[in-house]
């Protein structure tokens, strides 16, 4: 079971710009048996005073099960500390015994964060909030930030707040100014959170998330055009032209290559199939797997079902693909070159960068000299 | 060692009775320790000349583990009765039930049971509000449970709840000593309590009169026997002590918990007899005993 404070803490980590470790800035009251008998508020007061003395201006107090069970008055204590220390001490009462699981904890957490947002008299139609973390690989931040920023700019927006992920308290306070919001990715749990944020702040949430791939980008721009009344046909034409030009050059290396795809049924990889098609790469077979322990391990161990890698190995032998690509993060134990499908960053630059890398991968056997091109 | 737990509704006089019974047992030549299991920590006051002793939980809070010693929390009281108070948080703060669990862990770990006591008395908070306060009911702690009540319905209701709590820990071994009637002076008080006692199949071990001598002894910070030896109230207390000694010698004379159903409690409230003309308790009065399979 995941306790609801888990998501709350994760969200606060993101709020600080994705610090490497949540413990970099989390102070713990270290409740012990004595605290559970006599109450933990003294420890809490002491920790918050310490943070205030170090210059923190906003402190979130994420309560867990023990304070919930013994009835510590977290909300009252936070109000008292805010008054005493002249800083914002925000209670996030996510004791799992009363709140529920991780998703419910996230909701309570978001509500607490939203209490900091300053009311905006008017919404600025040129501003958009990005909800959710869109960076897949932190080491490529600069490349991919450029991709998203360019997409937003092309659509006639300026980024207001990226929450969570790279905002600080001043960004959160300004969140209400934007007229629009877009989800960074299509995820059920975070969609619920995005709905909550937009309902509370009166922001129009776009139906389409930040687009992965060219077709999605065009759909996204269409939605922007219908929401804002902007004429984005020129932008779409320019993007399509750049896309086709770059893809055409990569296609010279990938045309006629073959791939075997091993994919989870839940994988949302339309952009991937579109790209393979555009690059002239032929999909020999889609092998779907319900990625779970029963299929992957237990049934295989009992001899009821060949292990997934057994199926894939047999496919490789029959079809002889140039590459196996998979979104299953496990070792398939096959001799053929195998690559994770992964995920590009949203926007044109993101998909083109992905296509470049894919082209290099397909070309690797020839470059490395172990197989003819 | 024979362990006795005194339960009953809050304010019914458990602490006064416990301290007096402990003193009486001590005067009978028994080695006795009394453990107050109430955050108010006033159980042993009468045994300590009116002083309030420091509590186990305060001690554990301020003393590092390696420096803890059982002797620091045991005070010798009147008649040689050893006194221990659990203590606990201020009202409305923390979890007193957790505190009781911690105290029992400490006392067990420090070897209180190796102290050569003949009798250990637990004076427990009014109602069994959570698992912490039910510790003395568990197997391995109280060998006998006495329930103090008056004739007031809410007091009898609390007594019935305590029997329900006991039923949760029923392992087939009889552990209820009986009922102690601490009179409040209401009309037909004995009859009300007798009706309840008949229903639950328990004897009334003693009837303690409503007597200003108790208040006098309390104001002097001593037990009734010390202040008014031989008084009617003192003799009633001695009856409880004698009953404890008798039951410790013959545990088979103890009883199993048979709490009343809600309907039967309603009859008690209305003063309708639970026994019929043949002396049989009316069918359906008792709630079912737990089948333990042990």
Summarize the structure.
The complex is a heterodimer of chains A (373) and B (294). Chain A has helices at 4-15, 33-38, 41-53, 65-70, 74-85, 96-99, 102-114, 141-154, 169-173, 188-201, 214-228, 233-254, 270-278, 293-302, 308-319, 348-368, and strands at 58-63, 88-93, 124-131, 158-163, 178-183, 204-205, 258-263, 282-288, 323-326, 338-340.
**Largest sheet report of chain A:** 4 strands, parallel
State the end-to-end CA separation of chain B.
24 Å
Q: What does the oligomeric state look like here?
A: heterodimer
Quote the CATH topology of the largest domain in chain A.
Answer: Rossmann fold
Q: Would you mind describing this structure in some detail?
A:
The complex is a heterodimer of chains A (373) and B (294). By secondary structure, chain A is α/β, with parallel strands linked by helices. Chain A contains 16 helices and ten strands. Chain A has helices spanning 4-15, 33-38, 41-53, 65-70, 74-85, 96-99, 102-114, 141-154, 169-173, 188-201, 214-228, 233-254, 270-278, 293-302, 308-319, 348-368, and strands at 58-63, 88-93, 124-131, 158-163, 178-183, 204-205, 258-263, 282-288, 323-326, 338-340. The radius of gyration of chain A is 25 Å and the shape is globular. The N and C termini of chain A lie far apart (50 Å). Chain B has 294 residues and is an alpha/beta fold. Chain B has nine helices and eight strands. Chain B has an eight-stranded mixed beta sheet with strand order 3-4-2-5-1-6-7-8, with helices on both faces. Chain B starts with a strand and ends in a 24-residue tail after the last helix. Residues 289-294 of chain B have low confidence and may be disordered. The interface between A and B is medium-sized, with 12 and 13 residues.
Annotate the secondary structure layout.
The complex is a heterodimer of chains A (373) and B (294).
Chain A: H1 4-15, H2 33-38, H3 41-53, E1 58-63, H4 65-70, H5 74-85, E2 88-93, H6 96-99, H7 102-114, E3 124-131, H8 141-154, E4 158-163, H9 169-173, E5 178-183, H10 188-201, E6 204-205, H11 214-228, H12 233-254, E7 258-263, H13 270-278, E8 282-288, H14 293-302, H15 308-319, E9 323-326, E10 338-340, H16 348-368
Parallel strand pairs in A: 1-2, 3-4, 3-5, 5-6, 7-8, 7-9, 9-10
Helix pairs in contact in A: 1-7, 3-5, 7-10, 11-12, 12-16
Chain B: E1 2-8, H1 14-27, E2 32-37, H2 56-62, E3 75-76, E4 82-85, H3 96-109, E5 119-124, E6 144-149, H4 153-168, E7 176-182, H5 189-200, E8 204-208, H6 212-220, H7 224-227, H8 232-249, H9 262-270
